[in-house]
Write a structure and sequence with these properties.
CATH topology: Rossmann fold
CATH superfamily: Vaccinia Virus protein VP39
Distance between the termini: 24 Å
Number of helices: 6
Structural class: alpha/beta
CATH architecture: 3-Layer(aba) Sandwich
Helix content: 25-40%
Number of domains: 1
Order of helices and strands: HHEHEHEEHEH
Largest sheet: 5 strands, parallel
Strand content: 5-15%
């Protein structure tokens, strides 16, 4: 991995993320993410109360493995439209996602920022973010965007293993080549409420991969 901390300061936070995760895609890191996060994601999908025809956003979708899980859960509705969207700032990750998702007709992938989600207001029934939220330079603005695109009664699920309550995870902060936001679970719950989300809660999802 290249140390993006030495990049010219004119690059925005999203541009730095794009460069770094393009390199991750080229290095095969997308597949590693699936291995590391599959178990907790599969368990979290059970909590999402997913139904056929729902509109779902996978925010920070990477190589699209979780997007495919979602697409299989919320099968295409009668309209025939793609009802599952994977969004990522890295165009190389999106390229990989498209290549490996051709058998699924109810999803599409878009290159874009979490702070400028290309969707109309009140569009999605569910939003899932797997191990990407701590990379966002402006988490508050990202939450405002998610709140905008969520339909009334919609629900947001953020999976995060890198947070202050998990002391083991803090060793990764210095290993990453892009800045990350490190907060406690309670701080995340407070932030969600401050940005309009009601009935916030957090829970620990055990990883039972045995690895």
């Amino acid at each position: 991995m290249t140390d993006t901390s030495s990049l010219p300061p004119r690059l925005s936070g999203d541009e730095k993320l794009q460069l770094e995760f393009n390199r991750w895609a080229e290095a095969g890191e997308g597949e590693k993410m699936e291995h590391h996060h599959f178990d907790i994601t599969r368990k979290s999908l059970r909590l999402m109360d997913l139904h056929a025809g729902q509109r779902v956003l996978d925010l920070g979708c990477g190589s699209g493995w979780a997007t495919r899980l979602l697409a299989r859960e919320v099968r295409q509705d009668a309209s025939g439209d793609a009802n599952v969207v994977g969004l990522d700032v890295s165009y190389e990750m999106i390229r990989l996602a498209r290549q490996t998702s051709r058998e699924l007709s109810n999803l599409r992938y878009l290159v874009g920022s979490a702070t400028q989600i290309p969707a109309q207001d009140d569009f999605f029934d569910r939003v899932l973010s797997v191990e990407s939220f701590y990379y966002y330079p402006d988490q508050g603005l990202a939450l405002d965007e998610v709140f905008r695109v969520l339909a009334p009664g919609g629900r947001l699920f953020i999976l995060i293993n890198l947070y202050t309550d998990n002391e083991y995870s803090l060793q990764w902060v210095d290993q990453l080549k892009v800045p990350v936001q490190v907060r406690s679970a309670a701080e995340y719950a407070t932030m969600l409420r401050e940005h309009g989300f009601a009935n916030t809660e957090w829970r620990q999802v055990p990883d039972e991969r045995g690895a």
